[in-house]
Specification:
single chain, alpha+beta, Jelly Rolls, Arc Repressor Mutant, subunit A, 2 domains, 5-stranded antiparallel beta sheet, two-stranded antiparallel sheet, 11 helices, 50% helix, 13% strand, DNA-binding, Tscrpt_reg_AraC-type_HTH, Homeodomain-like_sf, HTH araC/xylS-type domain-containing protein
Length: 297
C-alpha cells in the first residue's frame, strides 16, 4: 500500500521534505560537465541518451551503440563511455540518493537493483521505450521546476519513479538472459575452433582473435558455462588428446609432442607431468599394464 501524507502537497514541499533526494538536468555530453554532477560519488545516476549524431563507445571492450540508450551508474562507478569527436548529444541525467526509497513502500521493493555501490550497466532502447523514458523524465523534471503547482498526495510523486525503476529492473533481467545465451554461443564457438586448431594453437589470444572477441569476453563465457578459464579448457583438450595418443598410438613421446603442437618434447613432458603427476611414458606403461588399451576409454 502506498504511504500517503493525507493532504495536498506542493512540489516544493516534497523536495524540501525529501532533502532533494533527486535532480534531473540536461546534458550535452561534455565530460567536464558530467563531473560537476551534484554528489557524483554519493548518488546513483540514470543517464538517458535520447539522441546522438554518432554511435557511442561503451568502454574499451564493448561495442559502439546507437541512441536511444539508458546508462546506470552507481556511486563507485566512473563514466565508462565516450562520444566521437564533434558528436552532438541530447541527454538528461537523473541523479538520486538511496534515501529516495524511504519515501514510500512502493519504491522500497526496488532497492535490490540499487543495493550495489557499483552497477555500470547500459540498455539499448527501442523507439517506443525511449519515448516512455522521455515522458517519465518530463514529468519528474516538470515537478522539479515547479511546472505543476500541486501533487495530490504522495501517490502521484511515487508514480513517476515506480514505472521507471520497474522498467529498469525488467531490462536488467532481459539483459542477464541475453548475456547468458550469448555466453553459451561464445563457448560453443570456442570449442569448435579449439577442436580444429588445438594441435597448432595453445594460447588464449589465438582463439579470441579467431573468434573476433576480447579475451575477457571469452573468459566470461567459459566461467559462465563450465567455471573454467579459457586456458584451462585448452589444456584440458590437449591433455585428453595426449592421453588418447599415449594409449592407442605407437608414437613415441617426441613424435607425440610434435603431433600436439609442442616445439620441444621436454615442454610436452613437463606439461603432462604438471597435469597428471607422472611422466607420459609412466602413464602409458601404467594404463597398458593395468587395464589394457581397449578398456582405457
Amino acid at each position: 500500500m502506498t504511504e500517503s501524507l493525507g493532504a495536498v502537497i506542493s512540489a516544493n514541499d516534497i523536495f524540501r521534505a525529501t532533502n532533494s533526494f533527486f535532480e534531473v538536468r540536461e546534458w550535452a555530453g561534455e565530460e567536464d560537465d558530467f563531473l560537476l554532477t551534484p554528489d557524483l560519488k554519493r548518488n546513483y545516476h540514470i543517464i538517458f541518451l535520447e539522441a546522438c549524431s554518432q554511435p557511442i563507445r561503451m568502454g574499451n571492450e564493448r561495442p559502439m551503440v546507437d541512441c536511444p540508450l539508458l546508462i546506470i551508474l552507481g556511486p563507485h562507478d566512473a563514466p565508462d563511455f565516450s562520444f566521437p569527436e564533434n558528436a552532438s548529444v541530447n541527454a538528461r541525467i537523473l541523479s538520486y540518493s538511496k534515501d529516495l526509497f524511504s519515501i514510500s513502500m512502493d519504491l522500497k521493493h526496488h532497492q535490490f537493483f540499487f543495493q550495489n555501490e557499483s552497477i555500470n550497466a547500459y540498455y539499448k532502447l527501442k523507439e517506443k521505450e525511449g519515448k516512455f523514458i522521455r515522458e517519465i523524465l518530463d514529468n519528474i523534471q516538470e515537478q522539479q521546476l515547479g511546472g505543476r503547482k500541486a501533487v495530490p498526495h504522495l501517490d502521484l510523486f511515487v508514480a513517476f519513479f515506480d514505472p521507471l525503476f520497474t522498467f529498469i529492473n525488467k531490462k536488467a533481467q532481459q539483459n542477464r538472459w541475453e548475456e547468458s545465451s550469448r555466453m553459451h554461443v561464445y563457448y560453443r564457438a570456442f570449442l569448435k575452433v579449439l577442436d580444429e586448431h588445438y594441435k597448432k594453437w595453445h594460447l588464449v589470444t589465438d582463439y579470441s582473435r579467431l573468434l573476433g572477441i576480447h579475451e575477457k569476453q571469452l573468459s566470461r563465457s567459459c566461467r559462465k558455462v563450465v567455471d573454467m578459464s579459457p586456458l584451462q579448457v585448452i589444456h584440458q583438450k590437449v591433455l585428453m588428446e595426449a592421453k588418447h595418443l599415449l594409449i592407442y598410438s605407437d608414437l613415441n613421446v617426441k613424435q607425440l609432442a610434435y603431433e600436439l603442437g609442442f616445439n620441444e618434447p621436454s615442454h610436452f613432458s613437463k606439461f603432462f607431468k604438471t597435469k597428471m603427476g607422472i611422466w607420459p611414458t609412466e602413464y602409458r606403461d601404467h594404463i597398458r599394464y593395468t587395464s589394457g588399451a581397449e578398456k582405457a576409454l
